Amino acid sequence: MQQYLRNIFHHIEALFDKAFDGALNPIRRLGPLAFFLYWIVAGSGIYIYIFFDTSVSGAYESVEWMTRQWYLAGIMRSLHRYASDAMVVVAMMHLLREFSYGRYRGARWFAWFTGVPIIWFLFFSGVSGYWLVWDQLAQYVAIGSMEWLDWLGIFGKQVANNFLSPATITDRFFTLLVFIHIFVPLFLLFIMWFHVMRLKSPRINPPKELMISSIIALVIISLVYPATSHDKADLSTVALNLNFDWFYLIAYPLFDAIGPGPMWAAGIGVTVLVSIIPLFSMRNRPAAAFVSLEKCNGCTRCAADCPYDAIEMKPRSDGLKFDTEAVVDPDACVSCGICVGACPVSTPFRHDEEMQTGIDLPSQSLKNMRDEVVKVMKTARDEAGAVGNGTAVVVFGCANGINLEKLKSSINLPDCSVAVMGVACTGMLPPSFIDFAISRGEMDGVVVTGCRENGCYHRFGQFWVEDRINQLRDPNLRARVPRERLRTIWAAPTDLAKAADETAAFCESLPSITKDDGVG
Ligand code: HEM
Ligand code: SF4
Ligand code: SF4
Fold it and tell me: Quick one: fold of 366-517?
């Protein structure tokens, strides 16, 4: 089911990729977009609060006055509503997407666990907003909510009865509602901050273009379909024919149908179940990265590149002349291997058997990587040799991108041999491996493939790869490597055919170089 959902997201993303260039695709920016929508809701909320009358008798008229002023207060009211609705859609899509990618595993449990109460607070914020309009929908929501709370017996008496007679609802109670509608969203903001606080450099703002287009879209919707109210609340009647907000009020018809007890059971049950999803993956957690002090010179690159803040530079403990050493926190490490790609000692240009590096992964050591790449390159070279002067390329791919074996078998060119090697994340690949493959004349070209543009499963791996290739980040790819012999293909598993075509075209375009021409 998870894989199925993930594929659906890949297809939706592909559609959006056609309209937005990869870097701006909103589906890959759902968390930051939800943050941005929060700011729109907060800004428009502050504006409409200026004109809002917090009394039972005046609230409805003050909202109606705003609605009639279509150009400013009216737009602000509509923006407030539609940005809130959009926030529900975006937050739920974000939840589903993170789930489908399994991005709750290991140290990521914290972001997942703190995401769950966000949903509750988002709903509380929206529902409390609907009360303030004090129209017939507010009446329906207020009575429904109170019946729901009454079932718990926390008030000592039946509070819902307060709503059955016009005499029992006071301005004081109404001021309390206003207070709730301000306090709950503030608490929501606090949880949102908590949600990302353990992430290194969390991206809480979408790109400028996405912000501007979101505002324009929301303003257009506000102008075309301005938010309106129902008739004024009348507690002596039962409201019928309500125009529902299915984003926030979806639970109420269900509540009417099944009653408060089962609704509480369903709400709490689903919350607990969703919260403990990360527990199910704890057993198969891969072993954390480890540091070999005799090879670590304290350069700090691994700590700078680790997307999960799992590495701390501490004072040297082994008496070597360096000031610091890298220390891994195994609980925060998700075994992405990006630190291995960052370590300057991680190079295949060595002859020692052990191939020890400063920081390594138990599940895929640098030595294994070197041995494997040598093996697959030799096979591809032999195949290319067998057809005369054929071309050979090696594809380094990450565990979350296209299936490498399928890619290899999809390329059926007689004069092009493909070797493939998988790594946990493309950021794990030290740039010296690209140098190793090309400069020694082993391969005619190298392809590095990983998750779609800006969609790196491990957050920053893809950025570091680009920066290392473009010599913007150490360890960088040496200038002697001809860049025309290197191709990056950012693709999801569903892009297999496209990636295979690109790899085949790249392979065919490569002039063959022989071992003797190699630089290394
Ligand atoms: C208003 C609602 C929410 C907002 C504003 C929000 C915001 C964010 C942001 C800004 C990020 C960081 C993106 C990055 O830098 O890569 C993030 C990541 C994440 N969020 Fe949310 N989020 C919300 C709701 C949720 C919910 C409901 C869940 C799930 C229960 C959730 C689960 C996650 C997970 C698992 C990550 C990934 C952490 C990682 O990459 O290690 N979020 N969220
Ligand atoms: S493998 Fe390295 S980069 Fe990845 S989380 Fe662990 S320490 Fe950080
Ligand atoms: S990148 Fe390598 S050498 Fe540098 S601090 Fe980390 S483990 Fe040590």
Answer: Rossmann fold (3.40.50)
